[in-house]
Amino acid sequence: MRILVTGGLGFIGSRIVDELVAGDHDVVVLDSLAAHVHAVDPEYRNPSASYVIADVVDPDGWRSGLAGVDAVCHQAARVGLGVSPADVRGYVEDNDLGTAVGLWCLHEAGFQGRLVLASSMVVYGEGGYRCAEHGAVRPGPRRPIDLDQGRFEPPCPICGDPLEPTLVDEDAVLDPRNTYAATKLHQEHLCSVFGRETGVPVTALRYHNVYGPRMPRDTPYAGVAALFRSALERGEAPVVFEDGGQRRDFVHVADVAAANVAALTAPGPVTGAFNVASGVPHTVGDLALALSSAMGGPTPTVSGRYRLGDVRHITASTAKAADLLGFRAAVDFDDGVADFATAPLRHLR
Hints:
By secondary structure, the protein is of the alpha/beta class. It is 34% helix and 17% strand. It has a seven-stranded parallel sheet, sandwiched between helices.
């Protein structure tokens, strides 16, 4: 197959490119090599792929990359929670407008192959919860007054009692709670409408907390694993927000790449949304401790600080991806963290 990978020089996209090339696919990469993302042309650039250096908001870049392709793997995006409302324009331009331009060009080209979109677990907002009395419930956004006083766990919205976190599946209500999350959901909506109107099969892969080699370092927009790793490399204790009890699913980039390859190359297209996760929850505090141990660094500092756009718990059911895509994560948490402790990260400008 000839496959276009947008963002194919980035953290996840480059790993997908490597896996596709290893599977003897003809790979075209569309990437801007933006200054705020890449300090230099990455040394891991796969020489067997071809490259179009252009921004996803540029129709001519898409047109160049789309020639003769059988599938599109859309990874290019501005990631991370963001640090202020001033970030909103950048997120909307890179994620929403970039996707809209791509879909416009796909339609212009008469594209009828597969479209695989990098989505995110952030579209759910909070994960699943169960109240002992009221069953499955959905708590509202957490209140600053509670967070300021260290009440991090969301209560039952009916009776106020404590809740038990549960796994979230793909049919859960979608409730984005920060700017990045809103743009990822809009990407899903745009691609879904495009697929319905054109017959193009669309697969949305909702990544959970991805970590591994080639993550960007020393940036507030990186994932928590990279933030912890960067602190430890400076000889500092990783700073854990809240009380460290936030439950997440940390999935290695090798597994995320495998999920994309499965969606792109399955005998027939598999459409819809899929959680891409390890299936084994850990807390943010677990990750900080594991990395500190692996790197021989200082004990993590639990700060009590919070970000209003964060959610408390979000962990995934992986049953649908296993049943329909044949995807099951293969990298164990302890092995993945040990590998990540010494893996090369990407320097930014």
